[in-house]
Write a structure and sequence with these properties.
Elements lengths: L18 E7 L3 H12 L4 E4 L8 H4 L20 H5 L10 H14 L6 E2 L4 E7 L4 E6 L4 E9 L21 E4 L14 E5 L3 H10 L5 E6 L6 E2 L7 H8 L2 H7 L20 H12 L5 H4 L9 H19 L2 H7 L15 E2 L2 H4 L5 E5 L5 E5 L2 E4 L4 E3 L2 E4 L8 H4 L2 E3 L6 H7 L15 E3 L13 H21 L4 E4 L1 H15 L30 H13 L5 E4 L8
Parallel strand pairs: 1-2, 1-6, 2-3, 4-17, 6-18, 7-16, 8-9, 8-16, 9-12, 10-11
Antiparallel strand pairs: 4-5, 5-6, 13-14, 14-15, 19-20
Helix pairs in contact: 1-15, 15-17
């Protein structure tokens, strides 16, 4: 394996050039590959990131237990066989430190660091209609003139940090999982509270339960969970998955969710006994397969959803046994359907609650009122004394990261203001009123939630690079969705999404975790392969949802 550059000077801040063809915001999975492609095209391209080094999600989410729940060998770049095969994973679902090392390996192997600025936050971007270019400002005083602005800011990278009144008064340590300190928190032998039992909270809880004196879990919405099987990988396993490079490169972009498996069973064609056998077999796989490759009907048919939900519910009940814990931690019949929320993988998560030092506190009907100096205070006045609070309370998904930048497009349109009115994009790649602004992981594309992220982010960055290349080759300077083009995509997205049970469920998938956020299913639900096909058709057809234009050069007097 090649040496990985991790020294402090490697992550030193480079000043951003004052004039560029393309500025990429973000140095995670999407940003690294986007920068590489633009450089290969001969463009003057640069990337910047708030973080002090590469990694994106895997830089910030360094909380205890953070790990993949996509199989490592599919959560990879597939544009270069040597790049794929020269890295070897240690297990099926590796942890954050190994994932971060892999992203260092990518940045160093592709020699990207010279065109990257770290510890640099884009604060403002204004589009100049006379030049067809963006004026970008950063918190480091950079002022950049660039033709293209590309937001690779991540779908879950705007943490909801200031969630409760009084957080600043807490006498102990407090941190959001999405901004967990590099050095960690001192939790050993401490009274620790974890707020939230989504995918992140579950990873934290199962990891630290044995390390702390007392763990108090504040649980609002029960979650359906699936057990993770995470075998170690040796030479034989590495040879097995590396030998599948061509197969994975061909198949992953065309499945429904960008994973290696796909829906192969039809509910109506099987007997009840056959359905149960399928569910048992897939459940035993120890992956997300039950969610992403069992029966697609669970997303559309309430009866099918109820049966599969009951199957998972009984698996959880059998492990918990305690009626009080079951009431707090297991979704009740009719509450919501399995798979309409993000489904977490776990390792002995439910068993953690059976420990004498772990208490589950329901905050559904008795919510957290405030954080007080001593700990967490509930609405009924109960105070839980704590030394450490870990907030696993989620993100402003999809739109949040870009909306936190002051981005002003054509005719004075502000992106955050537009998204406060309605969450709209065209293909999740551009927004009407914001010429030459591209985005990945944004609303109304599969990458907003329902995809193996590397599969979708590779596809989106490749489409953006192709679009920029086509624009320049055609002699145009600017591309922007038309109003009718955006309306057509939003209508198609909504028609597809509203046919699913996801649209009927309150979760971050619909933005309902953020007060005042317009409700819309954030992710395209038509499938990764279908979305890819529509993007390819758009490019091959000359970009009918978009308008290209040329900036007139002022004549000399």
């Amino acid at each position: 394996m090649p040496d990985v550059q991790t020294t402090a000077d490697a992550a030193a801040r480079n000043p951003i050039p004052k004039q560029l063809d393309a500025l990429v915001i973000g140095a995670g999975v999407a940003g690294l590959y986007q920068l590489h492609q633009l450089r290969e095209m001969g463009l003057r391209a640069h990337a910047c990131d708030t973080a002090s080094d590469v990694g994106g999600t895997w830089y910030w989410n360094r909380y205890p237990g953070a790990k993949f729940d996509s199989e490592a060998y599919i959560y990879q770049y597939l544009f270069d066989e040597k790049l794929y095969k020269d890295w070897t994973w240690s297990e099926r679902f590796p942890s954050q430190p190994e994932i971060e090392r892999w992203l260092h390996y990518i940045a160093d192997t592709l020699d990207l660091r010279g065109d990257m600025s770290f510890s640099t936050t884009v604060t403002k971007a204004d589009y100049d209609e006379t030049t067809g270019r963006w004026r970008v400002e950063t918190d480091q005083g950079d002022v950049v003139d660039t033709q293209f602005l590309i937001g690779c800011t991540g779908m879950l990278s705007a943490p909801l940090e200031d969630r409760f009144p009084g957080q600043s008064t807490f006498k102990g340590q407090i941190a959001h999982t999405g901004r967990y300190p590099k050095g960690g928190l001192d939790i050993e032998g401490k009274r620790v509270g974890v707020i939230g039992i989504g995918a992140t909270g579950i990873q934290v809880i199962q990891t630290i339960a044995s390390q702390v004196e007392q763990l108090t879990v504040f649980a609002r919405t029960p979650q359906f969970v699936l057990p993770m099987k995470n075998p170690k990988y040796g030479p034989d396993e590495a040879s097995w998955y590396k030998g599948r490079f061509d197969e994975l490169k061909t198949n992953l972009p065309r499945t429904f969710t960008g994973f290696e498996y796909d829906f192969e069973n039809t509910w109506a064609e099987l007997t009840p006994e056959q359905r149960l056998a399928v569910l048992e077999d897939i459940h035993a796989d120890g992956s997300l397969k039950l969610w992403l490759a069992s029966f697609a009907e669970m997303f559309f048919d309430e009866e099918v959803s109820a049966e599969i939900s009951e199957f998972v519910r009984q698996k959880m009940i059998a492990r918990l046994k305690d009626p009080k814990l079951i009431d707090i931690l297991v979704p009740k019949p009719g509450e919501y359907g399995f798979g309409t929320h993000r489904v977490p993988l776990e390792t002995d998560y439910l068993e953690a609650y059976l420990r004498d030092n772990v208490e589950a506190v329901s905050v559904r009907d008795n919510p957290i009122a405030e954080i007080v100096p001593e700990g967490v205070k509930l609405a009924d006045g109960t105070v839980y004394d704590l030394d450490v609070i870990i907030m696993a309370v989620g993100f402003d998904a999809g739109s949040g990261a870009l909306a936190r930048i002051d981005i002003t497009g054509r005719d004075g349109l502000n992106l955050a203001e537009e998204w406060r009115k309605d969450i709209r994009t065209t293909l999740g790649l551009q927004k009407y009123g914001f010429p030459n602004l591209f985005m990945t992981g944004a609303p109304l594309a599969p990458s907003a939630a329902l995809c193996n992220m590397t599969t979708c982010l590779q596809q989106q960055t490749e489409w953006i690079a192709r679009c920029i290349g086509d624009l320049r080759e055609s002699g145009h300077d600017v591309i922007e969705p038309t109003e009718t083009g955006e309306e057509a995509w939003v209508s198609h997205h909504d028609e597809t999404a509203n046919a699913t049970l996801i649209a009927k469920t309150n979760s971050w998938y619909t933005g309902s975790n953020v007060e005042g956020k317009p409700r819309r299913v954030l992710s395209y639900t038509g499938g990764v392969g279908t979305y890819r096909g529509k993007c390819d058709e758009e490019a091959k057809g000359g970009y009918p949802l978009f308008a290209m234009s040329k900036i007139a050069v002022p004549q000399e007097a």
